[in-house]
Design brief:
The chain is an alpha+beta fold. Helices cover about 30% and strands about 20% of the residues.
């Protein structure tokens, strides 16, 4: 229950801007200003209880307690390492970052890239932090984590060995901003070791909230150069690298497994032909490419002087030009981080339109797996269609299509949560993917539906992710005609639990929303008099009735359990006392806390109706019903619930095999009707109710 309340409260906060970069959420509920003030008042240095010094914060395997790499580690504050520590010396520079004993070169490269854009840097590294004025051993950084910005508080105790920082450090030995930022990243991911291994795109996303694309240059699409040019027009961040397997001539001066920034893409005229060029920067500030179009190479002699000046082709700063054809030939991978509109401050760049959604794959309700898994052929079609669905409506085509075809550019990113944290417990990333279907004509203009198997599986997807991959995020750039589409994110294997965020970028304005039904109920009010009571019902009632001519919850439980025990076509563990109490709460007209004959007969009619619905959905005659059938079964009973409510229902009423027996099915429907009826009593046709604490406790404790 507390988890559900937390999710709902979080959503409410997000509606008020909480979780944006301007209103970040205090990570671990630690408020930087309050903690700093307390330390200054007490004249003590901050010690972070949520990320303490010790082996747990270092790691769990390679950096675990028994690893030789951590023997002799001491945690020291910068003032114990040098006489005059500085947060930032003469501005943050790309040369400030030196890698340490953990394999987080991806993080090092993206921290270096931050220094190339001061606006983005100051969003992540709040200014006005120092080791002098107001120093209390506490610092803070702002990171994007799975759809929301968090403010991460750390103390400045850093792991050292032999008097030197064990992990990331600055070439300027008195500077510590990059080492402290690395500690903040380690904290949100559980340990320093959790940072081992990764792609620059992950760092780009955590520092900007953007969405990354990864292109293997050996499989570069024909329009990639245009995509790169458009990316710069949208303020995107780009990086590239060379795989260690690549064969390179040493004379070309390129380094394998080293992240380069891509900083420009231009076309020049040379000897009557157009040459596509890309500009790269080595974050070291030296060691530049020596091939064609490098600084002062002969190719520049055939370019007009004004164009050479514009491209600043010969500066000695680690930045260089090369032909796009050589770029694709020598480099292995290109990463593009497309920025959200709020990240960009310049009016010279265009902005993506952007939306994001939280979602979950929950066993029994929304973890339906993929249709490309061979095992899926043995599963009911309803399982795949139980996956979450999201609608997107595209109306206007792009102004300048990069591939020459009119259409709407859509960039879809699907990210699974908490992968690095789960490393500690040996949990691997899931293989995830998504399909995009065109919405059939009869459902266009509606988002208050959940497309069933007979709708989705009768149509071929118009786009899909590049298979399923066990990455933190997979993304796909699509060019689609104007129209309405539904995106279905899934895990390759069914019945896998997990949380995700789905993000959609479009060049032109588009509307997107979760595709789910509205919550409604069609409750039939049975009007029954004494003369309407069925004789067999009256006979059953009289067997258990008390001297007051009514049945209590205990007597009702005995009565219903006798009924189900005599049937061989349904499975039941017996009706719970709770279900019987809810039945009485629903139908008790005189407030006696018991049911009279007419009230019992009303309940009996409901149970007979529910039995008929239940048996219809028990297709394998097992006496139980699959939880994946629950959405449609509830609809048969007059209740329409969205995916979130469905997950709560199934987590409460299904067993470990995702099956629901008859007594739990009845208990669910009785509970739903009771709560819906209660809501209607307080609702003044607004769809919302307001309760004071007295009313809330009376209703929820009932």
């Amino acid at each position: 229950m507390s988890n559900i309340a937390e999710v709902l409260a979080k959503r409410q906060n997000r509606e008020h801007g909480v979780g944006t970069n301007k209103k970040p959420i205090p990570f671990n509920k630690q408020d930087y200003q309050n903690l700093k003030r307390e330390c200054l008042e007490k004249k003590t240095l901050f010690c972070d209880p949520t990320f303490p010094v010790g082996s747990d914060s270092l790691g769990y395997n390679e950096l675990g307690p028994n690893s030789s790499k951590v023997q002799g580690v001491e945690w020291k504050r910068p003032k114990e390492l040098c006489a005059n520590p500085q947060f930032i010396v003469d501005g943050a520079k790309r040369t400030d970052i030196c890698q340490g004993a953990v394999g987080d070169c991806w993080l090092m490269a993206t921290i270096a890239s931050l220094t190339l854009n001061n606006n983005i840097l100051e969003r992540v590294v709040p200014p006005d932090q120092s080791f002098s004025d107001g120093y209390a051993g506490i610092f803070h950084f702002q990171l994007w984590q799975y759809g929301e910005w968090v403010d991460v508080v750390i103390d400045d105790r850093l792991p050292t060995k032999n008097g030197k920082l064990l992990f990331l450090s600055s070439a300027e030995h008195s500077e510590f901003w990059s080492a402290l930022l690395e500690k903040a990243c380690a904290k949100v991911n559980g340990s320093y070791e959790a940072l081992d291994g990764g792609l620059c795109s992950e760092g780009f996303e955590d520092f900007t909230g953007g969405i990354a694309e990864i292109y293997k240059l050996s499989e570069a699409p024909p329009d990639l150069f245009k995509i790169i040019q458009k990316a710069f027009g949208l303020g995107s961040l780009l990086s590239c690298a060379i795989d260690k397997e690549k064969k390179l001539k040493k004379s070309l001066n390129l380094k394998k497994e080293h992240a380069y920034s891509v900083t420009g893409a231009e076309e020049v005229q040379c000897l009557g032909r157009t040459v596509q060029l890309v500009r790269l920067r080595n974050p070291w500030g030296h060691k530049e490419w020596t091939g064609a179009w490098s600084d002062n190479s002969s190719e520049w002699n055939n370019v007009r002087p004004e164009q050479k000046v514009k491209l600043n082709y010969s500066a000695e700063d680690g930045e260089f030009w090369m032909a796009y054809s050589d770029f694709v030939l020598h480099f292995s991978v290109l990463e593009i981080c497309n920025l959200t509109p709020d990240t960009l401050t310049s009016d010279k760049v265009r902005r993506w339109n952007y939306c994001q959604f939280d979602g979950t794959w929950k066993v029994g309700s929304t973890a339906g797996g993929g249709i490309d898994n061979p095992c899926s052929h043995f599963l009911p079609p309803v399982m795949f269609c139980s996956n979450p669905q999201f609608a997107i409506k595209l109306e206007d085509v792009d102004d300048d299509p990069h591939d020459g075809e009119n259409g709407c550019t859509v960039l879809v990113g699907l990210m699974q949560k908490d992968g690095r944290k789960d490393k500690r417990i040996g949990r691997e990333l899931k293989s995830i993917g998504f399909y995009i279907f065109e919405v059939p004509d009869e459902y266009k203009g509606r988002s208050n539906v959940h497309l069933s198997s007979d709708v989705l599986l009768e149509n071929t997807p118009v786009e899909r992710s590049k298979g399923c991959q066990n990455l933190r995020e997979i993304s796909k750039r699509c060019n689609l005609p104007p129209g309405e589409y539904v995106i279905v994110p899934y895990t390759y294997e069914p019945l896998l639990q997990g949380s995700f965020i789905l993000r959609v970028f479009t060049e032109k304005k588009a509307t997107a929303s979760p595709m789910d039904v509205e919550i409604t109920a069609n409750i039939q009010k049975d009007r029954i008099s004494d003369s309407d009571v069925d004789p067999s019902c009256k006979e059953l009632f009289m067997q258990f009735v008390g001297s007051d001519s009514e049945v209590s919850a205990k007597e009702l439980q005995q009565m219903l359990n006798k009924f189900v025990s005599e049937r061989t076509d349904i499975t039941s563990d017996g009706f719970s006392r709770e279900t019987c109490r809810h039945s009485i709460d629903l139908l008790d007209k005189n407030g006696s806390g018991k049911l009279g004959l007419v009230e019992f007969h009303t309940l009996w009619i409901k149970i007979q109706k529910y039995l008929e619905i239940f048996k219809k959905r028990d297709t394998d005659k097992s006496g139980t019903m699959s939880s994946y059938e629950m959405r449609d079964t509830l609809k048969d009973a007059g209740f329409q619930v969205n995916g979130e409510v469905l997950q709560v229902i199934i987590s409460r009423y299904a067993n470990k095999q995702q099956a629901i027996d008859f007594d739990n099915f009845v208990g669910c429907l009785i509970n739903l009707e009771m709560r819906y009826t209660m809501f209607e009593m307080f609702d003044n046709n607004t769809g919302k109710i307001e309760l004071d604490i007295h009313q809330w406790l009376c209703l929820t404790l009932n």
